[in-house]
Write a structure and sequence with these properties.
InterPro entries: 5peptide_repeat (IPR001646), K_chnl_dom (IPR013099), Pentapeptide-BTB/POZ_domain (IPR051082)
CATH architecture of the largest domain: 3 Solenoid
Order of helices and strands: HHHHHHHEEHEH
Organism: Aquipseudomonas campi
Keywords: Membrane, Transmembrane, Transmembrane helix
Protein name: Pentapeptide repeat-containing protein
Strand content: under 5%
Shape: elongated
Number of strands: 3
Structural class: mainly alpha
Strand order of the largest sheet: 2-1-3
CATH topology of the largest domain: Pectate Lyase C-like
Largest sheet: 3 strands, antiparallel
CATH superfamily of the largest domain: E3 ubiquitin-protein ligase SopA
Length: about 300
């Protein structure tokens, strides 16, 4: 028996909560297949378990924009490629749901239940809704509201990360872990030591998710220290290697290359001994050697963490 059609006003004013409750899923399926727009529907606590909103025979899915699905029951639903942009899925039950290729940008995902859901190729926001709103409140000077939104964003990122890890989607899980830690940092007092330390960990390694950050920091430190050695001078046997304006640019370039070589040797703590520091170059070399040992150990930890996934 075909589902009784529901008027547009009923979809948007929440009358569907009580109207045709048993066949609401069938009515929504029929609405989707009719090609009529689906926007701004009020489906709070709707019983939609097992609903099929897959646009069969088409590479693009149906659109269900700006819909309120607060605490909706969508267990084992088929939502392949469904465009849910702008919708609220707060505390919605999507256990066992097929969300493959679904578009969840601009959605409120706080408290969403995703146990056993298929999450392959879901289109996520680079920054979740709560994070964007929190940053807006922060720019407006409302620190209390911003902190509350950052807390909600942290909780949402953590929830999504855990479900993505269970699904074996470690690359996306790593991205959400990084955002989770950023949200935790933004809740700390602005000029506190903990926040500064957290920012440094993010800068150097992306909280263990960005090995390239460690490599770039290493190259930058080697280059900066090489320039400092070139300015203050080091010795290659009895010959000084340093900037000398009275000499030609080729000679200075050769000395700069020697200083960069010494910087690499110092950073990696190889210590061949063919070039030696003196004067102000000694504390620079000591600092670079210490930083190099720490940075190489950090790179190994971050790289192994990424590869063992």
């Amino acid at each position: 028996m075909a589902a009784e059609p529901i008027e547009d006003d009923a979809w948007r004013d929440g009358a569907t909560d009580s109207h045709l409750a048993e066949s609401l899923g069938d009515a929504l399926q029929a609405r989707a297949r009719s090609g009529q727009p689906m926007r701004g529907f009020q489906l709070k606590r709707a019983a939609l378990a097992g609903i099929d909103l897959v646009n069969h025979g088409s590479r693009s899915g149906y659109q269900l924009h700006d819909t309120d699905l607060y605490r909706a029951d969508l267990q084992n639903a088929h939502l392949f490629a469904l465009d849910l942009r702008g919708s609220s899925l707060m505390k919605a039950d999507l256990r066992g749901t097929n969300l493959h290729c679904a578009d969840l940008r601009d959605c409120n995902l706080l408290g969403i239940r995703l146990d056993g859901a298929r999450l392959d190729n879901v289109i996520w926001d680079r920054q979740l809704l709560q994070e964007r709103r929190g940053r807006e409140r922060q720019r407006a000077g409302d620190s209390d509201a911003a902190r509350q939104l950052f807390e909600e964003a942290e909780e949402t990122y953590r929830n999504l990360r855990l479900h993505l890890e269970k699904a074996g989607l470690f690359e996306q899980a790593g991205i959400f872990f990084h955002r989770e830690m950023v949200m935790r940092r933004l809740q700390m007092p602005r000029f506190s030591g903990k926040r500064l330390l957290s920012w440094l960990v993010d800068l150097f390694s992306g909280y263990g998710e960005k090995p390239l950050n460690v490599v770039l920091f290493s190259l930058g430190l080697i280059f900066v220290c090489g320039l400092l050695y070139f300015l203050v001078g080091v010795r290659h046997g009895d010959l000084p290697l340093r900037l000398a304006l009275e000499r030609g640019w080729l000679a200075n370039l050769a000395d700069l290359a020697g200083c960069l070589y010494f910087s690499v040797v110092t950073f990696t703590t190889l210590g061949y001994g063919d070039i030696t520091p003196h004067g102000l170059a000694r504390p620079i070399a000591a600092l670079e050697a210490f930083a190099g040992s720490f940075t190489m150990a950090l790179f190994v930890v971050v790289f192994v963490k990424k590869m063992t996934r």
